[in-house]
Amino acid sequence: MRRFLVLVGRDLHLALRAGTDAAVAVMFFVITVMLFPFGVGPEPNILARIAAGVVWVAALLAALLSLERLFANDYEDGALDLLALGGLPLEAVVTAKMLAHWIVTGVPLILAAPVLAMMLGLPSGGYGTLALTLLIGTPALSLIGGVGAALTLGARRGGVLISLLILPLFVPVLIFAIAAIDAAVMGLPVGPHLARLGMVLALAVPVGPIAAAAAVRQALE
User: Fold this and answer.
1) Which domain holds residue 105?
2) CA-to-CA separations, 155 to 67, 83, 114, 149, 179, in angstroms, rounded
3) How many Cα atoms within 13 Å fall on the side-chain side of residue 21?
4) Angstrom distance (rounded) from CA 186 to CA 159
5) What separation in angstroms does the CA of 105 have from each of 11, 23, 93, 120, 126?
6) If residue 66 lies in a helix (H) or strand (E), which one and from where to where?
7) Rounded to an integer, what distance in angstroms lies between the CA atom of residue 193 and that of residue 151?
8) How far apart are the first and last CA of the chain?
9) What would the mean pLDDT of 46-75 be, rounded to a whole number?
10) pLDDT at 123
11) How many domains does the chain have?
């Protein structure tokens, strides 16, 4: 566990020192959400109806932006080979990198989302559920996205390939999250929708690191 936490801290230090990926993801998230009123018009009822979907789609695309570099930097400078030969199983190594990605990218999105939803006029009953769906859903995005990043490791135009591979797998997260927020706004039970979203995360936690480690191992060979 100590080695795992050291590896998470290393990736966080490198990400925060560079700062580019996290800043770009958050700025993309904010700008994308703010552009929607210009595209659909300033009608409050329309903006309130689409607020949850706009925020979630923007968060999904923002998380996708930084996935290409999840393993690529360490792969290019040889650090990934050393990590694979270290004392941690490769599954733990990729899990640490996915966790660091979520902390750097997902947490800022969770913090910014309620403010942007308020700007769009999301009904007050949906704020708590919006934050909860992001808290459950964004780790799933990092875990699923990590598999795509590993599968495209070393490939040309890796970012495009990641999008093609991963976006269809993001759809269940998006559907269950929006359904939960809509239910909260209408005063309906949100438990079933959150349970489905939690099931996606519960499935991604064991499967994501195993699949990503297998892909990274193949790339290193």
Assistant:
1) 2-220
2) 14, 20, 37, 10, 36
3) 25
4) 38
5) 12, 9, 18, 22, 22
6) none
7) 30
8) 27
9) 85
10) 87
11) 1
Q: What SS3 class is residue 71?
A: helix
Beta carbons of 133 and 56 less than 8 angstroms apart:
yes
Distance of CA 121 to the CA centre of its chain: 24
Longest Cα–Cα distance of the chain, Å, equals 58
Confidence class for position 7, pLDDT limits 50, 70, 90: confident
Residue 153 main-chain phi, psi, to 5 deg:
-60, 125
With CA atoms as reference, report the closest residue to 62 among 1, 116, 7: 116
Q: Tokens 């910014």 identify what position?
A: 112
Residues whose CB falls within 8 Å of the CB of residue 216, separated by 6 or more in sequence, listed in order: 71, 80, 84, 90, 94, 150, 153
User: What's the pTM?
Assistant: 0.88
Q: What is the pLDDT of residue 178?
A: 94
Helices 20-40 and 2-18: crossing angle in degrees, nearest 10, is 60
> pLDDT tens, 151-207?
888 666 666 778 888 888 899 999 999 999 999 999 899 999 999 999 999 999 999
DSSP 92-150: HHHHHHHHHHIIIIIHHHHHHHHHHHHHHT--GGGHHHHHHHHHHHHHHHHHHHHHHHH
Please list, residue by residue across 147-157, b when 16 or more beta carbons sit within 10 angstroms of its beta carbon and e when fewer do.
bbbbbbbeeee
For the chain, the C-alpha Rg in angstroms (whole number) is 18
